[in-house]
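Good day; I would like, with your permission, to put a structural problem before you. A protein sequence and the structure tokens that stand for its backbone fold form the material at issue. The record follows directly beneath this note:
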Amino acid sequence: MNSEQNQNDQAWMEELSSPPFEKNNFTPELMTSVLNRSMNDSQAGKRKKNRMVRAAAAGLSTLAILGAIWIFGAEPFHQNPANPVQQPSAVPGNWAPHSEYMTPEGNPKLHAFPGGEYQAGSPAGSWWNLYVPVSTLEGQSIRITAVHKDTGMQIEELTSTTITPDMAYDDFTRVSSSFALPLSGLWKFDVYIGEEKFGDVVFDVPDSSWEPSPSFRSGVYEMTGVENRLGFIHPPFKANQPNKYMWHFWGSEEELNGDLRITAVKQNSSEIIDVFEGSLRTGKLNNADAALPTTMSLPTPGLWRLMVSIDERLYGSVIVEVE
């Protein structure tokens, strides 16, 4: 091991010996994922729009239902996952899955295109096509909220964002979001322009695999997680016993500088708990672009999904087994 490695090891080992606590939504990978998913609808949206208009003529009887959507407020992601609002039964409203929203006249108004094989706990990215010229919307704000049917959990899919000319795509407006949901099941997304509701979609988000995350090697260390994305040097987890874990992250400087938050959900549960909060800054360590020592504890045995968010955006997740 060379002297530079020794110096790096000494620095982060010193950090681990002390308490670690401190009081553009698309990555290139997500854009590729969305491109792959929407390839069949690629002809600038025009042929898609024509087909949608013809299909809508046979389905006008459903529009009364679409016009009666329940409207929800939203709280930021960083406030809600740890304290989901529990409802005694399904949240009211139209919960039939649909990725398109039509006008009362039967014309396409909104279409959402999540990327790749989207699933709970993993950011997938999404395009939101608003079938209105950008010149009509320019300067106004768009925001997208989401509510989970089974728990009533509310998050902000897209915080208030100003519509700009670069969102123009032929004769409609295209906006991107991270499409990162912490729980599986039915999610309803309400799209607002200013304070006025523009439309809504519903997606049945599948659960991701609960196989424990694999190990990989970076530098001279073995880590658990997603290679070239995120992972940590992994002492075993034992229920309700805190331990030190050195997290490593790969990505751009813009992605990796910000407030880091780790939450967790147990298999077959919808309760999300807080695990760690801190501040992340880029700095090379063990071939990673950023690293941070943490103290983590999980309360009960079983499989847990650790979800990492940076500046309120879900960055990735790791499945661990607690003894």
